[in-house]
Each structure stands twice: as structure tokens, then as C-alpha cells.
């Protein structure tokens, strides 16, 4: 039998929303997959032709782009940041909804007009998205790359503004920040390695179709 297809899934907050999607797509992972306490990284499913790996969100795209995994589930924020030509993103899965935004301290926003910015210093996990956004606006942007907890940067003077994901707005609020510009809406996508999509079309074609149908069913049920 051919090697199993590897589906890369991000650990963390998306995992909960992935569960009904996998179920509807007809893939039942072994129990340890949904156990956040499990230290295993690779998991079997009830289908001998499909295995799962659980990796960091940004790394899902890397595994699939290099063909180490053939399929992945990843936020469109990650695809916007890396722009991998080896990836094909055929299905919007309708989960992991949030937006990527510019935020600044509440006090600063009171007397600030983003249309008047000429230079900004921004703390972010997304330096490429940030650079592209401000370049298109004709604003000179200096990025400080962080891997998390961007919200603490303005109060400590690391950068006046941040670019980060916002969903309920709770994280911004609790850190005295307000959203001043929305850069893009974000949701999770199914990604496929382009070369594998050709060489393993018999397995990957039906799987892409199953995820498309599962996402539509969940959208209709919502
Ligand atoms: N507040 C949110 N609401 C909805 N979706 C989100 C939210 N935050 C992140 N996401 C989505 O989930 C993905 C993973 O985000 P998460 O915050 O779990 O990553 P992380 O904890 O920074 O990852 P890691 O620490 O593993 O690198 C993001 O790429 C994004 O698409
Ligand atoms: O608007 P909210 O609903 O508050 O969500 C926004 C927060 O969610 C994400 O972080 P997450 O909780 O995934 O934590 P992490 O990035 O620190 O892992 C994001 O980086 C924000 O900090």
C-alpha cells in the first residue's frame, strides 16, 4: 500500500473547531489527538490511508510546502504572511474566524488620525503583512518581530503600535489597546501541496471534496 497521506493540523485554539470538521469529512483520529496533554505528534485515524500530525500553526504551512505533509489546515493569516508558491488553498473551512488589525493604546488613539501617519514602529508576529500593508498606504513602517504577547509592547515602549489577530477584542481591551485599522479578515483554509495534488490525485482529490462538503454542511447547520 502507498504511504498514508499526512494531514497537518495546528495545535492550540483551532483544534476544537477542527473536530466536527474531521468527523463530517469521515476522518476519526485516535483519542490522543484531541488530548492536549498528549505529547505525541503523529496520530493514526480510522482510515489506514490518512494520518495526522499536530504542529505549530506557522509550521503547518512549512510542512505542507515542503511535501513532508500533503494536506494541512491553516489560518489565512499564515498564508498571507508566507505566500508559499508550492501551496494550493482550495477550501475556506469557515472556522478560526478573526481579523488581523493595527492597534494602539487607547489614550494615543483619542488624538490620532491614521490617515496622517508617515512613520510607525510596530510590534508583530507578521512582519511581511505589516510591511505590505503600510507600504500600500505610503507609510514607513519599522517592525519589531515578536512571537506572542504583542499587546504588552506599547506600554513598555517597545513599539507604539501592534499588528495582531483580534476576535472578541478582549485581549486588546484588557491591555488598554484599541483597534484602529483592519488589515484583513481571517479564516482557516485547507491547503494542499501542489506536486502531491498531481501525483496522488486519486487520494487527495476525494479528500479535498470531502472537506469542501464538510465545511458547507457546517456552514448550513450554523
Ligand atoms: N482569537 C482568535 N480567534 C480565532 N482564530 C484565531 C484567533 N487567534 C488565532 N487564530 C487562528 O488560529 C491560528 C493559530 O493561532 P494561535 O494563537 O493558536 O497560535 P499560537 O498559539 O500563536 O501558535 P504557536 O504558539 O503554536 O505558534 C492563527 O494562525 C489564526 O488563524
Ligand atoms: O480578540 P481576542 O478574542 O481576545 O483574541 C485575540 C487573541 O487571540 C490570539 O492569541 P491566543 O489566545 O491564540 O494566544 P497566543 O497567541 O498567546 O497563543 C491573538 O494573538 C490575540 O492575542
TrEMBL record:
State where it is primarily located.
cytoplasm
Q: Which PANTHER family match?
A: ATP PHOSPHORIBOSYLTRANSFERASE, ATP PHOSPHORIBOSYLTRANSFERASE ATP-PRTASE
| Chain's gene name | hisG
Give the quaternary structure.
Answer: Heteromultimer composed of HisG and HisZ subunits.
Asked if the record carries the keyword ATP-binding, the reply is: yes
Instruction: Give GO terms for biological process.
Output: L-histidine biosynthetic process
Keyword check for Nucleotide-binding, yes or no: yes
Q: In which pathway does it act?
A: Amino-acid biosynthesis; L-histidine biosynthesis; L-histidine from 5-phospho-alpha-D-ribose 1-diphosphate: step 1/9
Please identify the protein, giving its name as recorded: ATP phosphoribosyltransferase
Per UniProt, the keywords (alphabetical) are: Amino-acid biosynthesis, ATP-binding, Cytoplasm, Glycosyltransferase, Histidine biosynthesis, Nucleotide-binding, Transferase
Which InterPro entries does the UniProt record give? Answer: ATP_PRibTrfase_cat, ATP_PRibTrfase_CS, ATP_PRibTrfase_HisG, ATP_PRibTrfase_HisG_short
What cellular-component terms does GO give this entry? cytoplasm
Cell location: Cytoplasm
Q: Which reaction does it catalyse?
A: 1-(5-phospho-beta-D-ribosyl)-ATP + diphosphate = 5-phospho-alpha-D-ribose 1-diphosphate + ATP
Domain of life assignment: Bacteria
EC number, UniProt record: 2.4.2.17
Amino acid at each position: 500500500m502507498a504511504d498514508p497521506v499526512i494531514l497537518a493540523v495546528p495545535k492550540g485554539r483551532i483544534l476544537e473547531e477542527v473536530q466536527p470538521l474531521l468527523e463530517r469529512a469521515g476522518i476519526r483520529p485516535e483519542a490522543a489527538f484531541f488530548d492536549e496533554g498528549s505529547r505525541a505528534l503523529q496520530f493514526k485515524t480510522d482510515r489506514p490511508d490518512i494520518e495526522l500530525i499536530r504542529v505549530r500553526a506557522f509550521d503547518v504551512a512549512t510542512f505542507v510546502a515542503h511535501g513532508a505533509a500533503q494536506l494541512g489546515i491553516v489560518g489565512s493569516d499564515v498564508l498571507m504572511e508566507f505566500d508559499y508558491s508550492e501551496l494550493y488553498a482550495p477550501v475556506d473551512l469557515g472556522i478560526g474566524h478573526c481579523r488581523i488589525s493595527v492597534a494602539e493604546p487607547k489614550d494615543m488613539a483619542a488624538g490620532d488620525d491614521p490617515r496622517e501617519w508617515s512613520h510607525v514602529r510596530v510590534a508583530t508576529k507578521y512582519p511581511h503583512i505589516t510591511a505590505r500593508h503600510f507600504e500600500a498606504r505610503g507609510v514607513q513602517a519599522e517592525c519589531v518581530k515578536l512571537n506572542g504577547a504583542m499587546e504588552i509592547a506599547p506600554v513598555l515602549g517597545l513599539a507604539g503600535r501592534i499588528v495582531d489577530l483580534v476576535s472578541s477584542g478582549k485581549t486588546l481591551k484588557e491591555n488598554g489597546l484599541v483597534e484602529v485599522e483592519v488589515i484583513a479578515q481571517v479564516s482557516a483554509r485547507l491547503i494542499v501541496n501542489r506536486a502531491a495534488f498531481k501525483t496522488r490525485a486519486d487520494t487527495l482529490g476525494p479528500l479535498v471534496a470531502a472537506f469542501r462538503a464538510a465545511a458547507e454542511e457546517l456552514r448550513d447547520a450554523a
